[in-house]
Amino acid sequence: MPVVHQIGMSASEDRLEKLITERLKPNSNKTEIDKRIWDLFGEEWAVMFTDLSGFSRNVKKFGIIHFLQTIQESLRILVPCIDRNDGILLKTEGDSMLVIYRNVHKAINCAMEMQKTVKEYNRGKPQEEEILLCIGIGYGKIIRIGDKDVFGEEVNSSAKLGEDTAKAWEILVTEAVKNHAEDFPGAKFDLVRDVAGGAAKGFKLNYSLE
């Protein structure tokens, strides 16, 4: 089974590389090649980026072992939330996770469940062992390369919201997510005035940790 998975991944990457190489040629029909790429790899997904607030400061203060412990614990308690809400964890980078969902409602529900899980985990913990989670969510058509990576405007925006803009306990979303979540029970959003890195408009989800 792992062999089949690796072959599938390399086939997708190989096909994309060939099309990009063809696109670089003089007088290539970039419009036609772009259409072929989107036809092959374009899909609609909700994209979530998570980050741990104050993590760099804690690494400097408490050391690399503390860094590894916090990452391990965050994965242990948060991956089950992802599984229950039908998310796919594509990759982790340091203290960040990249997760995709077919359904915006499930992405939002998972984000709230994650924050509640973190709150419960922190009960009785010393401050240095608390997990403080920041979350950004985007939604739209993206280029997906197997189960390895995703690319697109909503990917970039959700990364800026989750990793650069959100503070501890915040769930920030793009306008596309807000527009697709208007029928989410009790959903209310506030405009974010300052989005890091010049990303598109962002909104903060109002939710209860109880």
The figure for the number of domains is 1
State the order of secondary-structure elements, H for helix, E for strand: HHEHHEEHEEHEHEE
The biggest sheet, with number of strands, parallel, antiparallel or mixed sense and barrel status, is: 8 strands, mixed
The rounded Rg comes to: 19 Å
Question: Overview of this structure, please?
Answer:
By secondary structure, the chain is an alpha+beta fold. The protein has a single domain, classed as Nucleotide cyclase, GGDEF domain (Alpha-Beta Plaits), CATH 3.30.70.1230. Helices cover 49% and strands 25% of the residues. Helix 1 runs antiparallel to helix 2, helix 3 packs antiparallel against helix 4 and helix 4 crosses helix 5.
Q: What's the short story on this structure?
A:
Helices cover 49% and strands 25% of the residues. With 210 residues, it is α+β, with helices and mostly antiparallel strands.
Secondary structure topology:
Layout (H helix, E strand, L loop, with lengths): L1 H23 L5 H12 E11 L2 H8 L1 H21 L3 E6 L2 E6 L2 H19 L10 E13 L3 E3 L1 H13 L5 E4 H6 L7 E5 L9 E5 L4
Parallel strand pairs: 4-6
Antiparallel strand pairs: 1-3, 1-4, 2-3, 4-5, 6-8, 7-8
Helix pairs in contact: 1-2, 3-4, 4-5
List keywords for this structure.
alpha+beta; globular; Alpha-Beta Plaits; 210 residues
